[in-house]
Amino acid sequence: MHVVSLLLSTGLSFLFLTLVFRPLEMAFPAKAGQRFFRPAWWTDLCFFLGQYLLWGGLVFWVLVHFGSWLDGVIPSPFRRAVGEQPWWAQAIEVILLSDFFVYWGHRLQHRVGFLWRFHVIHHSAEHLDWLAAHREHPIDSIYTLGLINLPALVLGFRLETLAALVAFRGIWAIYIHSNVRLPIGPLRVLIGAPELHHWHHDRDRDAGNYANISPLMDVLFGTYRCPDHEPESFGLREPIAQSYLGQLLHPFLRRQRQPPRPEPELAAAECPPADSTFAALASSERNERPERHAGTAGMAPSPSQIRSRPRLI
């Protein structure tokens, strides 16, 4: 009976999300012409089913036990003081603290190799829509949802309130991944919008826009990015398995290495090879001081000597 109800609720959730977001994607498409059954649709459907039928319960179980552990750590007078505040004050505190934790936790996912090897699954999507939001490794989900709900757990919110918060942020996460571009103008600085998160999914691993509900954290910490057009492409610069099972196993098969990140002013395409740099210096020295080349002490270095010198970095 439990399995039947779980399957029924999953099917109803899929139907509900389709009825809500598909009309939006058709009326305000960020990338016009993107089909409903676009490439990798079935892979993302597997992630959707995995979350609702299996991994969602595991994540919720971890959150409940983590909250129970915090109950014995956080002083009860602090919890009572928080509970005596107006509900709207508690809501603002939780949202701001949650966004703060998510922002810095998300930045770490892009900077720390161990975290990136799981988060890379989410960024492997080359077509964004409401279904692609569910492409997430279960371990990545535990990490993200743990950060999102940490303030609520610490402040002592009830389990029912916590479930409502998880549901709200889940809907919001689906919205900012959807193939939608709404003309909200300057409000996008205060309210998270799909076009902001679309740029986060640019192929550049450090594209910015790490915040969740509101981009205020990106504005405060200098990672806000909002061009007036969509990214040319989404996805990764590194190869990755395309199947559902392959992506679940991907973090464990090999150690992920961070791709090289040259400074913008010293990009590899702008830096001449080291050998040619030394050769140019030697030629300049011969032209400016010919008297030094009468003896061997002033001779220009040979090609073999040039190659043996340390290269510029």
Pick out its properties.
globular; 57% helix; 0% strand; 313 residues; mainly alpha
Q: Short summary of the structure?
A:
This protein is mostly helical and 313 residues long.
Specify the overall morphology: globular
Number of H- or I-type helical stretches: 12
Quickly give the structural class: mainly alpha
Distance between the termini: 65 Å
Number of domains: 2
Topology as a string of helices (H) and strands (E) = HHHHHHHHHHHH
Query: In which range does the helix fraction lie?
Result: 55-70%
- Radius of gyration using CA atoms only: 26 Å
Word description of this protein:
- This protein is an all-alpha fold.
- The chain has two domains: 20-253, no CATH class; 267-308, no CATH class.
- Helix content is 57%, strand content 0%.
- Helix 2 (41-71) packs parallel to helix 6.
- The termini are far apart.
- Residues 261-313 have low confidence and may be disordered.
Secondary-structure topology with pairs:
Layout: H1 2-27, H2 41-71, H3 76-83, H4 87-111, H5 113-119, H6 138-155, H7 159-177, H8 194-200, H9 216-221, H10 244-253, H11 274-288, H12 303-308
Helix pairs in contact: 2-6, 4-5, 4-6
